Amino acid sequence: MKHAAVGFRVHSGWTAVVAVALEKAEPRVLARQRIQLVETFTYYFRQPYHTAKRIGADKGGEFISGVASRAKRLAEEAIRSLQSSLRKENYELSRCGLLLASGRVLPSLDKILASHALIHTADGELFRQALLDASRSCGLAPFTVKERELVDTASRTLGVRRDALTRRLTALGKPFGAPWSQDEKFAALVAWLSLSAGKKT
Asked: Which CATH architecture best describes the domain 2-199?
């Protein structure tokens, strides 16, 4: 089987998903999806730390744990489904790429809830961690990079100039049509990087 990787660009409660394989060292998009990481797509669940602030730290901690657990389960179901469909096309989905935000270590819950900026950060980190945990449960080797460093890292690692890289990412989505926004482009790029990193290990 040919190797494939999936890339994620995460938002609160959902993620862009792009699966990529290398064909003669060139990336090829195999699948594009957007998957929900909450069962009920409302701000109450999509922004769990905001909700915890409203309901109080005691109940909030339990609520956050529940959202994280369900997000991992939904992500795992989506990944296993994608693995199954790609396997039928002779591709083994064995790696994942995930874009990080700041990468800062978060403090305790009470300190997070005391800071509006940290609440926003924590909401995003919850869903990123759920995807990482789900990916590992599905046997995917993880690759992470900070989003603000993605294009420079890719240009350097892949040996492609930034302007040429932008054109190639745009062209990758043409067979699929819309949506092929920055979400999908960046998800495809981090998946491509993940495959490149896998070839070096």
From this structure: 2-Layer Sandwich (3.30)
Domain boundaries of the chain, sorted by first residue: 2-199
Q: Are 156 and 141 in contact (CB under 8 A)?
A: no
H or E element in which residue 9 lies: strand 2-11
Phi-psi sector, 25: left (phi>0), alpha (psi -120 to 50), beta = left
Tokens of 162: 């930034």
The CA R_g of the chain, rounded to the nearest whole Å, is: 17
Neighbours of 111 (CB within 10 A): 10
pTM: 0.94
Dihedral sign, Cα of residue 103, residue 108, residue 113, residue 115: negative
H or E segment and range at residue 51: helix 48-55
Which pLDDT belongs to residue 191?
98
Measured distance between the N- and C-terminal CA atoms of the chain, rounded to whole angstroms = 18
Q: How far is CA 159 from CA 20, 89, 162, 196, in A?
A: 18, 29, 9, 11
Could you report the per-residue pLDDT of 88-136, keeping only the tens digit for each? Answer: 999 999 999 999 997 678 999 999 999 999 999 999 999 999 999 999 9
Residue 50 corresponds to which amino acid? H
Query: If phi over 0 gives left and psi between -120 and 50 gives alpha, with beta otherwise, what is residue 98?
Result: beta
